[in-house]
Amino acid sequence: MTNKKATRRDAYMAKKKAFGFVSSVFLFLLVLGLCFVILNPILKLVPSVFSRIEDLGNPNIVWLPMNFSVVSFKAAARMIMPEGMLTMVKSVLYAAIVMFLQIFFSAMAGYSLARVDFKGRKIVFFMVILAFLVPRQSLLLAQYIYFNHFDAFGLLKLFVPSGEINLIDKPAALYILAIFGFGVKQSLFVLIFSQFFKNIPKELEEAALLDGCGFYKTYFKIMVPNAVPAISTVAVLSFVWNFGDTYYTRYFNPNGAYIGSIMAQKFIGANKNAIINAIQNWYSIPTASDLAFDAVKQAGALIYLIPLLIVYMFAQKWLVENLENSGLVG
Questions:
Q1: Structural domain of residue 199, as residue ranges?
Q2: Could you count the other beta carbons within 10 Å of the beta carbon of residue 217?
Q3: Are residues 21 and 166 in the same domain?
Q4: Adjacent-strand bridge partners of 150
Q5: Cα–chain-centroid distance for residue 205?
Q6: Would you say the pTM of this structure is higher than 0.85?
Q7: Phi and psi at residue 317, in whole multiples of 5°?
Q8: Residue 131: which residues within 8 A CB-CB, separation 6 or more?
Q9: Are 307 and 217 contacting, i.e. CB atoms less than 8 angstroms apart?
Q10: Do 227 and 193 form a contact (C-beta atoms < 8 A)?
Q11: Has residue 132 been placed in a domain?
Q12: Is the same domain home to 196 and 96?
């Protein structure tokens, strides 16, 4: 009897191990296939952007270039970044400033909606949700007119004779949008902070009150340090979305030479013949053709993605962990 039980147990364990092995192999192949589907477009760029201009169109080149060259990157960088690395630094700095403004004001708005009991809180919360649902195109005309005749609620009459200034094509317009909660996806950030602060135990605030902390000290000393998961999540999303935004920047700062998305958009829309002629003249390659134009555009797209890839590389694990834990606090 004991031998039969042992035999059944061994058979069950063998089936369980076999099932576990098959499941692991299946998941591995599934993940491998998904990775290939995602990376395949990037892998196809390698033979074109890293090949010599003269080798483009060679049918023998499939996955690796025959002669390694970075001429496509040099030409793309020269066109996208007229000031060299300073252009990229300015673009990253712009996205970082807007990110900081969105985090600072969205966190305060989220905390107020989650933990402060004031009259009209539900109405304000409804308006935040409405701002998230309403298409931003419907607000564009009013925002454009306001920034074109910006009067700071009539206060500029004290400083400017005309009582208004034009903020179109100036970075201040984009900063003001972030300050007042109308930046890129900012209503979503307010909702993230509101939900996070709502889940933090009230005992923390009560303990801080007993220790003599006022409202602002409790917020900055107790609540903000505990909101690191939400802050890091919003920081990554805000930086990525603002760095790649072409909607607000196109209308409110279309000539911003420091905005990477604007420079990339102008580069992609550039005249084909102008780019081909530039390659021929800059690098003495008279055989440059439409294939060279495509290679330079692809290299320009990769250059534009470098800051985003760096952010993703360093923040991937951090972001995933915080997204998992952001709704489980308390």
A1: 81-269
A2: 12
A3: no
A4: 165
A5: 33
A6: no
A7: -65, -40
A8: 181, 182, 187
A9: no
A10: yes
A11: yes
A12: yes
